[in-house]
Amino acid sequence: MKKYAFNEITIWQYIFLIFTSEIGIGVLPFPANATRYAGTDNWISVILGWVLITAASLIIIQAMKRYPNGTLLDLLKNYWGKWAGIAGAIVVALYFAYFSYVVFSRTVIYVKAWLLPQTPELMLVAVLIIPFWIIARSGVRVHGRFAEFVVLMCCWMPVIFIDVLREAEWLHLLPVLKEGWGPVLAATPEMVFTFLGFEMTFVLYPFLQKKDRAAIGVITANTLALLVYLLLDFTCLVFYSPDEITQYNEPVISLLKVVEFPFIERFEIVFLAFYLLLISLTWIPFTFCSVYSTSWMLGRPDHRPHLFVFLLLLAVSYFFYQPTLRDNDKMIAWMGNLGAGFAVVFPLLLWMLVTAADRYRKTSVH
């Protein structure tokens, strides 16, 4: 009997959950950040980042196939015992809790700066937490349905950037590799961070109905994210000059100021309002992965009490500390380092250890 049969998700829900988590927090600032490293050749870094995270995703799938009806925590417990599972639960809970806090604080900063500059941050936190609780308290199946709804609601957004290409200066892209491969490779870790979110496969895998399609699912999700990033990157590179683009914190939003419609004066505000739906699909699943881990560790099937405590701590933290944009940038830098270790290095190490353990068991039996 499947342990998570009551909460199974379809392959498209699986794809959209990973895809939306990947394009959440990093999509607005990444063209400027990558340009600081690799200049107008940063689109090559985007492709190299996609190659790395796709390889890491497939390694995760290969590791999870060893215990298809359980999450990473179940796999650790099955292979190395209860304490390995508890240690893994603590690491996973802290990892996703930190990511959720960073993404949530970034969301508050965006809303404060672009949409409601006169509203106190504590009020913004309260307004954001209420719908957060309504969705996050449900299981993975509801998260998957919400992801389908958000993708349907926001599928028009990339088309808007094609209109911006009327102002393009394509000569900005030439020559290719003007400074060699060094800057391109230096920008690749930045793109690995931008793609973070695929590591949710560690938790989502047992909920997938047809696990034989998991590899196709993560490749599809990563490729969709790649296409979005390439579209935004090329648009920013040919719209701004190579020096100008680095002067913006969120160049993707700033370039939308040239988009004009007779019935909308500031289209970038409308765009950002819809973008908040995409951001929510980063920190809601991240929070679920965190509270799921603590619930698993304590043997509680219901994650809602842990979610309530997490949201309460999140709200109380804003009474004592309200991160600025610079503070959040530092958090994101730490998040990139943690993500590179947990999402890229750890899957390879786990797969090697699990493979070695299986071979040892077979040798012991014979």
Give a written overview of the molecule.
With 366 residues, this protein is mostly helical. Helices cover 72% and strands 0% of the residues. The chain is built from 15 helices and no strands. It has helices spanning 11-22, 30-38, 42-64, 72-80, 82-115, 121-136, 140-154, 157-164, 181-194, 201-204, 214-239, 251-254, 267-297, 304-320, 325-365. The longest helix has 41 residues, at 325-365. The chain is globular and about 65 Å long. The chain starts with 10 loop residues before the first helix and ends with a helix. The mean pLDDT is 87.
Number of strands: 0
Query: Overall mean pLDDT score?
Result: 87
Please state the structural category: mainly alpha
Query: Using only CA atoms, what is the Rg?
Result: 21 Å
For the termini, the CA-CA separation is 29 Å
